[in-house]
Design a protein that fits this description.
Elements (H helix, E strand, L loop, with lengths): L1 H7 L4 H21 L8 H24 L3 H7 L1 H15 L4 H20 L2 H6 L7 H4 L2 H10 L9 H21 L2 H18 L5 H42 L7 H18 L10 H6 L7 H5 L7 H30 L6 H19 L6 H14 L6 H5 L7
Length: about 400
């Protein structure tokens, strides 16, 4: 089920949801059969506390501000199922190699689909409209780095498969023209190179880096160099225009105006916010008159943090901080270069913190599901002594 989830999470979310639900059912069965209390189990307690705190704090917030209380009960159901998913993964002793193989195959599948698509040949990458290559472009970047996270200890076949999947992910990321995914790519490249993979032999690291950079350079020169430069230049020009009060009706200008107006709306109701899905309406009152109607028509403010502050207030921001920062702090406390679960946790935590900068990452059920599966994968295993000593002493 874990293999099917990561294989389809960025391709067909219905199949991924079925796999996730199946894992939770398996977890319920395991807990019942072995009479395990998740509140007392060291391996499951952390996942249980983090996910339920997030869910119930938001539940209280929406109850207080009286907006969409019933709808929220089902919106974040993944977080209530998290402890059962964690039990299903942890006690079933799922092979991590299947997890990475699923991610690599998914990237290769997306790459092949993009390469042979009619839109690619007729209109180019910038007009490629596949939803999984645009909306989920940042998730694709995370999957790219997970595909090579065990590169230094993989066998030759997995090394080649991981590198090929990574290159496929690079073309998907650049081709999507989503600027946030480029930022995440740069940051994760630094993290993986200097923290997680710094023990790799110099020759191997040089080969990996050269291979990746060569592919990127060839891609830029041969395919989309002009469009890439235009996107970067446009971003700076639009920021300057918004700052000077000129043309605000640009992609970047609208976002900046939403953020600025959102912060003003937050001050109006700082504790419990304006309510679920009321962020744009509340922010539009403080926006420039030229963009007021346009912002009011959005369903979110294109930033997880700004949207949370406006809709849920400080208590909602607290719940989001618990969900995102707690796993990262736990990882830092237990950090070990040779632990595959620590490596996965570092990459995952940093990625999801970055996702929320320019996107409402947890506004999409697919992203929620992916985050749940990742924390259910690495958090329980941090407390497993045998795994703590060295995962890589065993063959992947």
């Amino acid at each position: 089920m874990l293999f099917l989830f990561v294989l389809f999470v960025n391709i067909n979310n219905t199949v991924a949801d079925i796999a996730l639900f199946s894992l939770s059912i398996a977890g319920v069965y395991i807990l019942k059969k072995n009479n395990i209390n998740p509140f007392k189990d060291n391996n499951l307690r952390t996942v249980l506390l983090i996910t339920t705190c997030y869910y119930f704090i938001n539940l209280v917030v929406f109850f207080v501000n009286g907006t969409y209380f019933a709808k929220y009960l089902q919106t974040d159901i993944y977080f209530l199922l998290a402890v059962f998913i964690a039990a299903g993964i942890f006690y079933a002793r799922i092979n991590m190699n299947l997890f990475f193989t699923g991610i690599r195959l998914a990237l290769l599948f997306l790459g092949v689909c993009q390469y042979f698509s009619l839109e690619f040949w007729q209109e180019g990458y910038s007009n490629f409209t596949n939803i999984y290559l645009s909306i989920f472009a940042p998730v694709t970047v995370l999957m790219m780095f997970l595909s090579i996270i065990s590169y230094d200890k993989d066998n030759l076949i997995n090394k080649l498969l991981g590198l090929t999947a990574f290159i496929s992910g690079v073309t998907l990321t650049v081709g999507s023209l989503v600027r946030l995914s480029w930022v995440i790519f740069i940051i994760l490249t630094i993290v993986v190179t200097f923290i997680i993979l710094r023990k790799v032999v110099i020759g191997k690291l040089s080969f990996l880096t050269s291979f990746v950079l060569l592919g990127v350079v060839i891609y830029f020169i041969d395919v989309d160099n002009e469009k890439f430069g235009i996107r970067i230049t446009d971003a700076f020009n639009q920021i300057s225009s918004w700052n000077d009060g000129g043309d605000l009706d640009t992609p970047v200008g609208v976002r900046l105006e939403m953020y600025s107006a959102g912060l003003e709306a937050f001050k109006e109701k700082p504790f419990f916010g304006h309510g679920y899905l009321n962020g744009p309406k509340a922010a539009s009152k403080y926006a420039d008159p030229r963009l007021r109607d346009r912002i009011n028509n959005f369903v979110q403010l294109h930033s997880e943090y700004i949207t949370t502050m406006v809709e849920k207030g400080l208590f909602g921001l607290l719940s989001l901080s618990i969900l995102l920062l707690s796993p990262f702090l736990i990882i830092c406390r237990n950090y070990s270069e040779d632990n595959i679960y620590i490596r996965t946790g570092v990459i995952s935590s940093i990625s999801f913190v970055l996702f929320g900068l320019l996107n409402v990452s947890f506004g999409d059920t697919t992203v929620k599901a992916f985050y749940v599966i990742l924390i259910c994968l690495f958090l329980p295993n941090l407390y497993e002594k045998k795994v703590q000593q060295s995962y890589f002493k065993k063959k992947l």
